[in-house]
Amino acid sequence: MTRSSFLRHRDVSHETLRRLEHYEALLRKWNPAINLVSTPTLNHVWTRHFLDSAQVFDLRPADAATWADLGSGGGFPGLVAAIIALEEQPGLRFSLVEADQRKCAFLSEAARTLSLNADVVNARIEAIDPLSADIISARALAPLGALLSFAERHLAPGGVAIFPKGARCNEEISQALENWRFTYENHPSLTDTDGVILKVGEIVRV
Tens-digit pLDDT profile for the chain (206 aa)? Predict the structure, then answer.
């Protein structure tokens, strides 16, 4: 699907659209060498990756100052969120955490050429000092229980975690409640009929 599919669901400025187009070009250039996304999804990048990430951005707290995207990979949702935030919430600062050095090279190049308010952290999530971020995000990284462990470490007090999840979301919530207490909201996904965007707060290990 093309950018028109994206724009039917999400209005952005001309400048943001230009940056997303540049990002698409970077993905297509780098993907053959380091497999940032599965090749078939490049033909659906505007919905499968860009819109999927934009809907995470739209659930952010409006007063957030810092955002940590864990296991950023090809930049979803963190890099897309940083692109949109540049005009819609310019004070929002991003940390893109990724253990794979080659993917970090891509993220750094994208952040630099797109003039984003983002730092790339080449490290394992559990090995870095707590980030004290107002928002934590992660896509297709780990089951909810593991994500809550990361969020507990890296969220600031009162912060929220936003995780796209698939059809097994309720099962993951039930399993996570065996070891955690948390509040959550389920928001229907725009890109996955079986998926939700899970917004989590007040995370406490039990």
Answer: 578 889 999 999 999 999 999 999 999 999 999 999 998 888 899 999 999 999 999 999 999 999 999 999 999 999 999 999 999 999 999 999 999 999 999 999 999 999 999 999 999 999 999 999 999 999 989 999 999 999 999 999 999 999 999 999 999 999 999 999 999 999 999 999 999 999 999 999 99
Give the span between the Cα atoms of 58 and 51, in whole angstroms.
10
Superfamily of domain 3-205 in the CATH hierarchy? Vaccinia Virus protein VP39 (3.40.50.150)
pTM: 0.96
Q: What distances in angstroms separate CA 177 from CA 94, 106, 138, one per listed residue?
A: 29, 36, 19
95 beta partners? 68, 119
Domain range list for the chain? 3-205
